[in-house]
UniProtKB/TrEMBL annotation:
<dbReference type="Pfam" id="PF13561">
    <property type="entry name" value="adh_short_C2"/>
</dbReference>
<dbReference type="GO" id="GO:0016616">
    <property type="term" value="F:oxidoreductase activity, acting on the CH-OH group of donors, NAD or NADP as acceptor"/>
</dbReference>
<comment type="similarity">
    <text>Belongs to the short-chain dehydrogenases/reductases (SDR) family.</text>
</comment>
<protein>
    <submittedName>
        <fullName>SDR family NAD(P)-dependent oxidoreductase</fullName>
    </submittedName>
</protein>
<dbReference type="InterPro" id="IPR002347">
    <property type="entry name" value="SDR_fam"/>
</dbReference>
<dbReference type="GO" id="GO:0030497">
    <property type="term" value="P:fatty acid elongation"/>
</dbReference>
<dbReference type="InterPro" id="IPR036291">
    <property type="entry name" value="NAD(P)-bd_dom_sf"/>
</dbReference>
<dbReference type="InterPro" id="IPR020904">
    <property type="entry name" value="Sc_DH/Rdtase_CS"/>
</dbReference>
């Protein structure tokens, strides 16, 4: 029987690759995102349902609750990103105010979004189901507010695994390394920085969104039923060899 799967931030990059993987396997997929046009285009392309939602906003997540199926098998908390990249000097704010704003934005985008969404749907997750959240190698690298938020996500996941485990639901993280060709890094890295990230891997190449989709699909599959409260690192060996 087809499973019901929610992929947050499923219009682009890793989320789209995950959603596509499940849709091509015959599952019923809902994708979310804040921007309606790219979301609807992506959903139409892969045969998924599109629901606009800002996962940092409790009211938007409450509205989403009303639109989702009564029963879900898999939740993929993928929505997120490094809001440091977009931080702009704001002369109207003092330095500390601007720092606090940008720090909070990272925590909201990468930690609160997953916790809030999981809280909203965990009651409808079926036995045998799975929550897979997208962490980052940044959690282990001292990468400012973004890395701290992803480290927090890994810690939060431990409690979640205990909480939902009694209902035979697993909770894991996939922690990507450098995944080229998504909006995350597009136009944001110098050639030198890109080369350095690739050189730090054992495989000598960046990862692709499909690599993460494969890992997520595994953790949501019957083959991974005894795996919970874990972080699966998918980074071409960067973590092990640096
Ligand atoms: P993208 O920017 O392509 O994907 C992020 C997606 O999330 C977008 O579709 C965006 O759509 C959506 N999104 C962001 N914030 C929200 C929100 N508040 N509510 C709803 N949707 C949201 O980048 P990636 O695919 O690379 O990133 C996906 C995940 O992978 C992120 O969690 C990122 O931190 C993580 N990651 C990426 C790595 C990489 O190298 N690319 C490495 C490690 C981790 P919209 O703006 O329309 O809302």
């Amino acid at each position: 029987m087809a499973r019901d799967i929610l992929v947050t931030g499923g219009a682009t990059g890793i989320g789209l690759a995950v959603a596509r993987h499940f849709a091509e396997s015959g599952e019923k997929v809902v994708v979310t995102g804040r921007r309606q046009a790219p979301l609807e285009a992506a959903a139409a392309e892969i045969g998924a349902r599109a629901l606009v939602c800002d996962h940092t906003d409790p009211r938007a997540v409450a509205r989403l609750q009303g639109e989702l199926p009564d029963r879900l098998d898999v939740l993929v908390n993928n929505a997120g990103g490094n809001t440091d990249f977009d931080a702009e000097a704001d002369e109207a704010l003092g330095e500390l105010e601007a720092f606090a704003r940008d720090f909070r934005a990272n925590l909201d985008a990468n930690l609160l979004s997953a916790a809030l969404t999981t809280r909203a749907v965990e009651g409808r997750l079926a036995a045998g189901g799975a929550v897979v959240s997208i962490g980052s190698i940044a959690a282990d690298k001292g990468s400012g507010a973004y890395g701290a938020a992803k480290a927090g996500l890994a810690s939060w996941n431990l409690g979640l695994a205990r909480q939902v485990g009694a209902r035979d639901i697993t909770a894991n993280l996939v922690a990507p390394g450098y995944i080229a060709d998504t909006e995350f890094f597009r136009d944001k890295l110098t050639a030198e920085r890109r080369d350095a990230l690739v050189a730090a891997t054992a495989l000598g190449r960046p990862g692709a969104p499909g690599d993460i989709a494969g890992a997520v699909a595994f953790l949501a599959s019957p083959a991974a039923r005894d795996i919970t409260a874990q972080v699966l690192h998918v980074n071409g060996g960067e973590r092990g060899t640096r």
